[in-house]
Write a structure and sequence with these properties.
Elements: H1 5-23, E1 34-41, E2 49-51, H2 53-63, E3 70-78, E4 85-95, E5 101-113, E6 116-127, H3 134-138
Parallel strand pairs: 1-6
Antiparallel strand pairs: 1-2, 3-4, 4-5, 5-6
């Protein structure tokens, strides 16, 4: 079954809400974004996969001042559902306290639960080279 326009808007707002809650320090509200058993993959940052809301909050608090002061999300692409799961890709920009920034791609699995749409899996892929390294692989 295709997603309705309302579903697409709700999913896009869900993706955006993460940055607002984290940046505002409202970690007590992460259940509005993630399922209780969320798998949050930070392997590209050497932190492995954080599983569950408590572990997510603990990891955020442990990072302390290393956390970005601002999470910005853009370029949200929502695929059609497959077996009740929706794949969502988006681009993220993290601004640090010193003004430096980094770029990531979020690869999310979103599911509908009783309270609405929630992220059940998120992989955060660091973007460190242009064209995902294509130029370096094609140089002669």
């Amino acid at each position: 079954m295709a997603l309705t326009l309302e579903d697409r808007l709700a999913i896009q707002e869900l993706i955006a809400l993460h940055g607002h809650l984290v940046d505002d320090g409202e970690l007590d509200r992460v259940a509005e974004v993630f399922t209780p058993d969320v798998a949050y993959d930070l392997s590209d940052f050497g932190q492995g996969t954080v599983t569950g809301l408590t572990a997510f909050v603990d990891a955020a608090l442990a990072s302390g001042a290393a956390n970005p002061v601002a999470h910005h999300v853009t370029n949200v692409v929502i695929d059609e559902p497959v077996e009740g799961r929706v794949r969502v890709r988006s681009k993220g920009l993290g601004i640090k306290a010193d003004g430096s920034c980094g770029s990531v791609t979020y690869i999310d699995t979103v599911v509908r639960v009783q309270a609405g749409w929630r992220i059940s899996q998120r992989k955060v892929v660091a973007r460190r080279v242009p064209l995902n390294g294509l130029a370096a692989r094609t140089e002669v």
